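quick one, two chains, predict together pls
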Amino acid sequence: MLRYAVKRILSAIPLLLVISLLIFMFIHLIPGDPARIIAGKEATSYEIENVREQLGLNEPLLKQYGIYMAGLLTLDLGNSIRNGATVFDTIAPRFVPTIQLTLLAMLWATLLGTLLGIMAAVRRGKTLDYVSMIIAISGISAPSFWLGLMLIQLFCVKLGWLPVSGLTTWKSYILPSFTMGCGVMAIIARFTRSSMLENLKEDYIRTARAKGLGEFFVILRHAYKNSLIQVVTVTGLQIGGLLTGSVMAETVFSINGLGRLLVDSIGFRDYKVVQALLLFFSLEYIVINLIVDLLYGVLDPKVRYD
Amino acid sequence: MAERLLDVTGLTTTFRTGKKTSVTAVNNVTFSLDRGEILGLVGESGCGKSVTSLSIMGLFEDTAGKVASGSIVFDGEDLTKLTTKQMRSIRGKRISMIFQNPMSSLNSCMRVEAQLIEAIRLHNDVSKSEARQRASKMLSAVGIPDPEQTLRSYPHQLSGGMSQRVMIAMALCCEPEMMIADEPTTALDVTIQAQILELMKDIRSRNNTSILLITHDLGVVAEMCSRALVMYAGRIVEEASVEELFASPIHPYTVGLIASVPKLGSGVTSLPSIPGSVPDLSAMPQGCKFAPRCKYAQAVCRQTEPELAPVPGGNGRKCRCHLFGKEEGKEAQA
């Protein structure tokens, strides 16, 4: 298992290199000249040229990539174009709110999604199944920016129960984490349901019942445990999606997290920060995938790492 | 006379297929099982053998099936009248069951020990380590050479024969009075089949366990049972001691079944078979269910269904046929 983990981590390096190249290219493909935007609308062509010179944008593309990669390898991500601070200092304080929201969203989405999925599977074809799946379909279908705005309209403007923006009290975490988790909850619910239904048909479930085991244990100890392999896969991928999904929620709820920083930086063509953020999100995807793969070995005894 | 353990009377099991429609998988089945007896239940796929066994166990969760009428009296208690909870305390403890496919009947994500200990602790108030010791003893009793190693294994690390031994150990760990074996050797190769059958016989003689052996393999019935029931389309068509059944089958269906077993040195080049196929449960023929496939069928067979009637001078032997088994010694010849 340890050898496998090391192998996987090493194999992530070339992957990261490719990703960094793609990220570097993308920022240069976005329409709009960073120098022109940074220098301002009124700037003369001389001023713009000056900014371009300062940022090294005049260098040939290949050389720019070289500088960028050298920076990456020495963990020097450069300075933010917008405020001059180092990229690290720009990103670090934005980290906490995003992680908090992500974990919170993940927590409720996993708990509720699993619960709905199990109930739907156990009561298949009954009212509870339909109700659960209507909730799930709605969760997948509602776009988070729309959902966020509707929630603000209802709970903040109409009812006045919860704050509109920021992350000051515990109350202010409710709406953003709910908005972020909705889609994830829905997907987990659907996967849990289908995976449970598959497992409930298996012969070993009949064996468990023939032993005299009660339905509660048949479902949890046997069917659910065997369903976990598929559920964990989706859940892992969804956590990855959640961090990036914070873009919407943070923008709607004006939260100073990584997602909003990404949006702002793209608007400002602060490409050093954008590159760093994209790289971070990719890295996080890779790490979560690795964790999921290692979890397979714990959940499914048939999986062997060699 | 041996003590009666199980009395199934007029058992009818239906499966709901729509809001108001249902099919009858087992129809008015009556039989009994004595303590220490091995009773064979024979028939083609879909004739209601397995549904009969599931009815006894009350294992209809997740299906649309239910016992519509009849009684299943086990040691003086009608199982069809018990609550779910009472039924659970009988399942696995007093009546246990083993299945056709041992590999998929064990939970692939749990170690053998966890599955055995679960079964033991469910019905016995013992500690985990005591349960484990008992599990280990059970595994040795069913002929597993290295029980400790097997206890730590996951099902995928075991062979089919080993898995079935583990299933049998699990079925026996609470010393049940009755074991239902639903095609226990169908998925195993022939040498392993013989070993498992031998093991079941052994268990019967050691613990006086009654065994209801469900199979489509007449060879297994001949090898194992004292008495056999032949089922067709959800009904029992013939009941006889194994010797009588093979020596002089009465019902044309039984005759056909026995004739379709290959015999060494018989010189027959093509194996006889029964023409046609088992009728669809939702479109049962009127009259005798076997009539459309029966070469002796007459008008009366197509109109009214015969009763399962005692055969004169047949020593408890019964047959469901208008034409045969009415007078002593009258048998259909293939």
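The interface with chain B takes residues 200-215, 221-222, 225-226, 299-302 of chain A (CB under 8 Å).
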